[in-house]
Amino acid sequence: MAAGALRQRASSHRGGGGGGKEAMPCWASLHIDVTQLIAARVLATGDFLDYVRFRAVCSGWRAAAASPRGCGLLDPHPRRWMLFPEGFGQRPGHPAHGGHARFFDLSTAGAFVRVPIPELEDHHVLDSPDGLLLLLRFEDTALRLLHPFTRDVADLPSFHCLAQQLKHLEELPNRIRLLDADVFYFYRTLSREVCSAVNITASGTINVMLALAPIGCVAVASACDDVWTISSWALEENELEATLPYQGKLPKIGRLLACCGRWTEMFSSASVDALAALVNKDNLTLFDLVSKMDMYMTTTDHVVRSRGILLLGEILSRISFKCLDVNTITTLSDFFISRLSDWQAIRGALVGCLALLHRKQGVGCIVIADVKRLVESFLQNVPVQSLATADRKLCFEILSCILDRYPEAVKQMDGEQLYGICEAIDEEKGPECLMLSFHVVEVVMKLFPDPSGLAAQLAGDVFEILSKYFPVYFTHGVGNGLDATREDLSRALMHAFCSTQYFEPFVIPLLLDKLSSSLPLAKIDSLKYLDNCIRFYGADRMVRHASAVWYKLKEVIFDLSSDQLLISEALNCLKSAIMYTDSSDKDLFINLILLDEDIVNKIRSVSSVDKSILSSLEDLAQLHALGSVISILAESSTYFCTRVLQEHFVHLVDIVGTKADYESRQLNDCNGSSSAPVNYGALYLSVQLLSSCREVALVSYKDCSSVKLAKESWWLILEKKLEQLIHLLRSFSRSMQPMFRQEYVSCAVKGLLTLATFPEQCLPLPANAYEDILLMFTSIIINKFENVDLWRLSLKALTSIGSSIAEFPASEREVVYYRTVVDKIVPLVESYDTSMPLSLRLEASYEVGTAGLNYMLRVAKSLEVAVVTNISESEANGRTKCAEHVAHLFECYSSRVLPWLLTSGGVNELALSFALRLLDETKDLTVLDRISSQGLLDSLMTGMKLLVGVCTAEQQSLIVQKAYSIISSMLSLPMKLMTGRLLAVDELVPSHSVPETALISMFSSIIVGLRPQTPVPDMMVMINLFTVFLLNGKMPAAYALASIFNKYLHSPEFSHENQLDKILDDILERCFSTVLANSSSEISHSSAGTSDDVDSSDVFSGNKLSKINILSSLAWIGKGLLMRGDEKVKDISMFLLKILCSDEILASIPPHQEEPYGGDSSDTSLAISAASAFHVMMSDSEMCLNKKFHARIKPLYKQRFFSILMPIFLSKIKETTAVTTKLALYRAFGHIISNAPVPAVITEAHQILLMMVDSLAKLSLDIEDKDLVYSLLLVFSGMLMDEKGKECILDNIQITMSVLTKLVSYPHMMVVRETALQCLVAFSTLPHSKIYPMRRKVVQAAIKALDDKKRAVRQVAVRCRQTWQSFA
Amino acid sequence: MTVGMINANPVVHERPERAAHPHAADALDPLDVFDTVRDIKDPEHPYSLEQLSVLSQESVSVDEKLGRIQITFTPTVQHCSLATVIGLCLRLKLMQNYPPHFKVDIKVAPGSLANEESGVYTDKFLRLISKK
Question: Member of which family (chain B) (predicted)?
C-alpha cells in the first residue's frame, strides 16, 4: 500500500512538473540502505501484500528486499493469515475449490485471498497454526508444515509414527484404552481433534506441539526429529484448550473439516470394525456405546446426527451373531423405526432396520409387531424414489428381507400399503435396485394366491409398472463393478412375471406382441418368458391363448431371417406349450398344428417336389423347421405320435421308395446307370418321425405291451413299414454313388442309428436285423476308410449304439455288440495289415472303446498284445518301421486309453501289468540286443516311463523291485561291492556290451517315472551302478541319476542313508576329475611330447565323445538339483563355467608346446557342449524331470538361476579377451537368457542389453547357433514391447539398429529375418528424434529384404519399408 | 465443383474368396503381384480394382529371372480419363513392394481405351510423383 502510494506520488511529480526535472527525486536510485530500511518498515507495519507491492516497484527496490522464497519457513514475513473454511462443510482441498484455499487477514480484518495450493491434491489439512498449514500426506501419513504463500515445506515425524508411539506407551494418561486393532481409531480421532502450535527460533529450528485432546497429552517434535516426544502427564481437555493459542484458527474447525475428510473416509470402516470388535468381545456394552453417542444421535446438526445414527446402525450390522436381550432389541427397533421419519438421517435408520431384520432366531430378533410397525412407518415416511441409489438399495433390501422372513407381517396388509410398495418401485432405474424390486414383486404376489385377494385385484396396476421393463435393456458394459448382469435382471423380471397367474391376461398379449418386434433381443426374451409363463400359468389359463401362441411361434419358426438361437427357443416354447396345455379337447394341437393349412401344404410340397431340395439353402431351412415342429408334436405323447404317424408316415416312406423300387435300384446300381433321384425331404421327415417314435418309446418303454396291444398305435404303423425302411436306409448308407450326397448318407445313418438304439422291448426289430446293422457299420469301418465322412459317421453311430446298450443293462444286445463290433474292430490294432493306416485303426478302436468300460479294457489289452508281439516278433517279420509303430501304440495307450480309463473308474492295475509284462519281455539279453539294434529301445523306454509315471507308489515299488532283481541277476558287474562307497576308477569296466546298456536304459526309464514317495531298494547300489554307466558316457544313466537326486535328496525316508548328499559330492567330484583329467593329461601329454603310449591315445579318441557325454550328464544332474532348488547346482555351474573358459588357459600355454593335433578343437567342442549344458539345465524337457514324471519343481527356479548367474557371466565376459572363449560364454549365456522368463530378463535389461546385442552379432556368424540366435531375438523383441526395455534400447539405439539391420539378411534361418524386420517395424513407435537418423539404414535393409527368397519375409519387408519411409 | 463421373454405374463383381495362399514355392509369382495390387481402390468408386474387373489374376505376368513385372489393365469404359491415375497407383504400389531392380511395365489392354497412346506410362513421369 505504501509502495503504491509512493509510486503514485512519483508519477504525479513526473507528470505535473513540466520543466522541473531535477526537482523530481529519483526513487529508483535511492540508497540501498534506505530502501532496506523502508522495506523493513513495510514489513513491520504492513503485510505480505504490501511487501509484494514494494518488491514490484523497480529492480533496485526488489534487490533491497529479501526474496520470500527459498528460505524455508524461517522467512521474516509476518503470518497473520488464517485459513478460512469455505463453508458447506467442505474441507480445504475439496474438489469444488479447484485446488485453492481461502485465507483471511487477521490484522487488517477484512482482506481475503484465495491461494492456489497444489499440495491439497494429496494432503489433508489438520490445522492452521500461525498462518502455516499443518498437512497430512495421504500416502504415508507424513506430517508437514506448509507456508501457503511461499510453499516452503518442513517435514515432521509421521502421524503413523505418533500412533505407534502412543500404542507402545505403558500406561496412557487418559481414559481411552488402546487396543491392538485400533490404530485406525487413532487416525480418525486424532486427525479430527488435533490442535497445534508452532514456534520458529531465531536459529531456524522449527518446533511443533500437537495437543491430542482425546488422549489428553501433548506431543512435541522439531523438523529434524525422527520421533515425537510425548508428555507423560495427563491433561484435561479444558486445560488443553486453555493452554493452546487459538490464534490462527476458528474453534472446532478441525472437526468440521474432518466431517467430510477424504482421509477419514478411508479409515472409517476400519474404525467401525474396531468398535464392533469391542462390542463383540464385551469390552464395550451396547448401552455404554449408546449413552456415549447420545449427543451425536440427538443433536440438531443433521450431519453429525446422521453420522451418529449410521455408526450405530453399522455396528449393529456387525454384531449380528452376538446375543442381545429382548429389551435391547425392542429399544433398538423403537429407535430405528422412529428414526425412519428423519429424512436427513435416513441412511443410518435404514442400515439399522436392515441389521435388525437380518438377525437370526436365537440371538434375539425383532418381534412381529415391531415388523408391522416398521412396514407401516417405512411406507408412510420413506420416499424411496427420492433417495440416492445406495439408500434405495437399502430400502429394497429391507422390503425383500421383510417379505422373505416375516411374511406374516405383511399378510394382513391392505391395498393401500401394497400400493405403497408399487410406488416405491415405480420408475426405478438402478440395476441392483431393480433386481431386488423384481424380487419384492415376486414375493408379494405369491403371498396372496387367493382369487379374491389383493394380488388378483391389483395385478393390472402392478403389471403396468413391471411391463415398462420388458424387454430388459441394459446398457452397462461388463466389468463396471456391478454385480447384476442383463441376464440376472431378465431372469428376475421373468420370475416376477411368473409370480402369480393373475398376470396372465396381461402378460401373454404383451409377450406375443413383442414377438413381432424387430429387436432380436426382445424376441428371444419374449420366447423365454413365454416358455416359463406357459409352464407356470397352467393349462386352464393357457388354453384360450393356444391358437394365438401357435400362430406367433409358427411365424418365428418358419421365418427365414430368424437365426438358429431364436428358432431353437421358439421350438422349446412350442414344446412346453404342447406339454403343459393339457386341455379337455385332446385334439387341440392336432387340429392346430397337424391340420394347419400351412403345415399340410409344406409337407405336400416337400414330398411332391421332383427337384432336389438340397439345391437351395432356404428350402433346407424350411425343411428342418418343419421336421422339428412335427417331431416335437410327435414326441410329446403316445397319442400324438400315433396321430402324426397315421397322418404322414406311410405316405412319406412310400415316397422314399418301395421295396420293389429298392431292388430294381440295386439292379441299376449293378448296371451302373443311375435311377430317379430320391426325395430328400421325405427321407429326412421319415427319419425325424422315426426318432420321435424312439423318444416316445424311451419314455414309455415300461408299459410298451399296452402300446403294442392298442388297436391304433404308432407301433403298428411302424411295424408295417419297418422292413421297407431298413432296406431303404441301408441302401443309402451303403451306396457309394455320387448322387447320394453327404446329407443323404448322414440322414440314413441317423435313421439306422435310431433303429438300433430303440429300447429292446418296444421295437419289433428282429435280432438279425440288428446284427445286420451293426455288421454293416463294422464293415464300413474296416473296409471303407477312404470315404472319410462315411467312416466317421459310422464310427460315431457305433459308439452311440454301444453307449445306448449301457443304458439298458444285461441285455442280449451287449453280447451281440461285443461279438459283431468289438471283436472285429479292436483286433485291428494288433494286425499287421498295412492297407489301413494305423492312426485310423487306433482311432476306431478307441472310439468303440469309449462306449463302455468293458470295451475299453479290451482295447487296452489288445494294445498291450500289439506292443508285446511287436517286440517278440519284430525280427521274424523283419519290419523296419517297427519303432515308429510301437511309438504310435504307446502314444495312443498313454494319452487316450489310460486317461479315459482313469476318469471312468477303470483299473490302474492295467498299467502295472503292462509294465511288468514289458519287463518280462525284455529281460532276455538276445532280445535286448535285437531291440537296441532296431532302434526300438527309445520308444520302449518312453513307453515304460509313461506307464510307470501313471502307476501309484505301491505299484511302482513292485515294478522297481522286479526290475532290480532282473538287473542284479543279469549284470556282470560286481554288484555286491557297490553297497558301500563308490568304486575306484580302476574297478570300472571300461565298456559294456550292448544288451547290458539296453537293460540299464530300461531300468533308468523306470527310475525316471517314479514318484518321490516310492521306496527304492538298495539305493546305494543303484546309484553306484548308474554312476559306472554315466562315467562311460551313457546318457540314460544320467537321466536316472538326475531323477534320483531330484526326488530323493534330503528326503526323510532315506535319512538313514543320508550319505546321499555325500555320494552326490563324490559323483560330481569324479565327473569333474574325469573331464579335467583328460584335458590335463592332454596337456601333460602334449608337454611330454614323445611318450606316445598306445593306451593313452586309445583312451584319447574314445574319451572325447564320452567327455562330452559326461558334461551333458552333469548338466542333467544339475537340472535335477536346480529344479529342487539345491545349492549344489552352483558347483556344477561353476565347473561348467570353468570349462567354458578353459580356452583361455590353453591360450596361455606357450605356443611351442602346443601339439599339432587335437588340443584346440577338442576343447572348443568341450566348450560347445558346456554351453549347451546350460541349455539343458534351463529348458523344459519331455524326456525326464517334468510334471508327468513327478519331478520336484521349485517355483521360479529359472528366474533364480538367471539372477544368480547373470552377474558372474557379465564379469566373465567383460574380462575375457580370447574370441573363442567369448563366443562360448555368449553361447552359454544366450541359452540362459532365452530360457529364463522374459519379465525377469526385462528387469535386468539395462545390464544385459549391450551384451545381448553383441552376442547376436557374434553368434549370427555361425550356422550352428541359428536356433539360439532366433530365441535371443525373441527375447529382444519381448524387451522391445516393454516400456522399461524400450528405454534401455533407446539408450543404445545405434548399435542395436546396426545389428538388427544385419540380421535382416541372416542367411541361415527365415524366421530370424522375419522377426528382425518385425522388430524394426516395432521401432517406429519410439520417439521420432531418436530413430530418424537410422531411417536411411533401415530403409536400405528393407529394400534389400524385398528381394528375399521367402514370401513371408518379403511381406514384412514391405511393411517395414512403408513404415520407415513414412517418417520423411 | 462437381464434375460428372465418367462411369457412374460400374458393374461390381464379387470378390472371390481364396482360402489360403496356394503358392507352391516361395518364388515370386503373378499371384503375389496380384495380391499387392488387387485392393487398390478405384479413383472414382469405393470399390477395388479387382471388384471392378479392371484387373484380374491373368492380367499380371512375372518373369523373375529377367526381373520383369508386367501388368495389363482394362479401364471400365473406353473414354476413361482416369486410366492414367490408375496406372500411377499401380506403379507406385509396385515400386513400394518390389526391389528396385525389377522393371515394371504397366499397359492398357489393347482396344479398351479410345486414346491409346497415353496408355503406357513412362518411368520419367512417374519419378516425379513418387519422389517424396
Answer: Belongs to the MIP18 family.
Does B99 contact chain A (CB < 8 Å)?
yes
Interface test with B, best of A1313, A1351, A1362 (most B CBs within 10 A): A1351
Map residue A852 onto helix, strand or coil. coil
Which cell numbers in the block locate residue A574? 412350442
What is the ipTM for the molecules in this complex?
A: 0.83
Query: A476: which residues sit within 8 A by CB, 6+ positions away?
Result: A431, A482
Contact at CB, A1344 and B99, closer than 8 angstroms: yes
Residue A1357, min C-alpha distance to chain B (Å): 8
Q: A790 to each of A24, A343, A736, how far by Cα in Å?
A: 117, 76, 10
Instruction: Convert the pLDDT of each residue in A337-368 to its tens digit.
Output: 888 887 777 888 888 888 888 888 877 788 88
pLDDT tens digits along A486-524 = 788 888 888 888 888 788 888 888 888 888 877 778 888
* Nearest chain A Cα distance for residue B8, angstroms: 33
Which residue is listed with cell 521349485? A1194
- How many residues comprise chain B? 132
B30-130: CATH, from 2.40.110.10, 3.40.120.10, 3.90.226.10, 3.30.300.130 = 3.30.300.130
Instruction: Give how far the C-alpha of residue A1267 lies from the chain's centroid of Cα atoms, to the nearest Å.
Output: 32
Residue A210 is classified by DSSP as E
- The pTM for the full model equals 0.56
Chain B residues inside the 8 Å CB shell of A1368: 132
One-letter amino acid for residue A474 of the chain: F
Chain B's closest residue to A1363, CA to CA, is B96
Q: Is A1351 on the interface with B (CB under 8 A)?
A: yes
Size (chain A), residues: 1368
Burial of A1335 from C-beta contacts in 10 A (0-12 / 13-18 / 19+)? middle
In three state form, how does the secondary structure of A358-417 look? HCCCCCCCCCHHHHHHHHHHHHHHCCHHHCCHHHHHHHHHHHHHHHHHCHHHHHCCCHHH
Helix (H) or strand (E) holding A577, with range, is helix A564-580
Over 50: is that where the pLDDT of A826 sits? yes
Looking at the complex, does the CB of residue A1347 fall below 8 Å from at least one CB of chain B?
yes
Alpha carbon distance A563, A914 (integer Å): 52
CB pair distance less than 8 Å for A1343 and B97: no
**Least CB–CB distance from A1347: residue in B21, B26, B99:** B99
Residues of B in contact with A1365 (CB under 8 A): 96, 132
Return the domain boundaries, chain B.
Answer: 30-130
Is the Cβ of B30 closer than 8 Å to some Cβ of chain A?
no
- For residue A1334, give how far its alpha carbon lies from the nearest alpha carbon of chain B (Å): 18
Do the beta carbons of residue A219 and residue A231 sit within 8 Å? yes
Q: How far away is chain B from the Cα of A622, in angstroms, using its nearest Cα? A: 27
Cα–Cα distance, A253 to A251 (Å, whole number): 5
| Closest-approach residue (CA) in chain B for A1361 | B96
Q: How far apart are CA B97 and CA B93, in angstroms?
A: 6
Nearest CA in chain B to A1356: B97
* Cα A289 → chain centroid: 46
Q: How far apart are CA A864 and CA A918, in angstroms?
A: 9
Query: pLDDT tens, A142-167?
Result: 888 888 777 778 888 887 777 777 76
Helix or strand holding residue A83 (H, E): strand A81-84
Tens of pLDDT, residues A1073-1101: 777 765 544 434 433 333 333 344 444 44
Cα separation, A258 vs A124, whole angstroms: 9
